[in-house]
Amino acid sequence: MGLRLLLLLLLGIFTVVFMNEDIRGPKSKWLRFCHDCDFYDGFKCRGPKKRCWKFNLSLKSNKSCTTDHYYYNDPITGRYLYRYTKLSCNPCEEGMFQVYHDLLRETFCCTDKHMCNTGHDILEKSALFGEDKEHTIHDDVLP
């Protein structure tokens, strides 16, 4: 009987802590919610856009949401051009890292609020002139 009561108590605590924050009201101070998308083209997610969470511990690298911008090297111009962005809850370490000889990853960490890794912090976007900011040149291309 005592074991069942303990399991019911733990189930209740688990339900309250891990409920959807929109239902619960105020944001949880023990959890950090972030966007999760494997291929974000700078304007919208080109796949399932999910939410992820992590414990909001006192470690600086653990409290952050991660935004990874990937650039490829154009051999003609010799410049690194924006390719895509990855949003995640992975532990974050800011900086630039060369993944392959022609692929560069730039990582941003945000710790100021929930869902702060929107991917809109990139300056090298190619929006169509006269269109709304959510429309890209890639929207006309079929998948």
Question: How would you concisely characterize the structure shown here?
Answer:
By secondary structure, the chain is of the alpha+beta class.
As a whole number of angstroms, the C-alpha radius of gyration is 19 Å
In total, the number of domains comes to: 1
Quantity of strands, as a count: 6
Termini Cα gap? 57 Å
Number of helices: 2
Fraction of residues in H or I helices: 10-25%
- The H/E string reads HHEEEEEE
User: How does the overall form come out from the CA principal axes?
Assistant: elongated
The secondary-structure class comes to: alpha+beta
Mean pLDDT: 74
Q: Describe the main β-sheet briefly.
A: 6 strands, antiparallel
Give the amount of beta strand, in percent.
25-35%
- Main sheet: strand order: 2-1-4-3-6-5
pLDDT < 50 stretches? none
Signal peptide: 1-19
Protein name: Prostate and testis expressed protein 13-like
Keywords: Signal
Organism: Panthera pardus (Leopard)
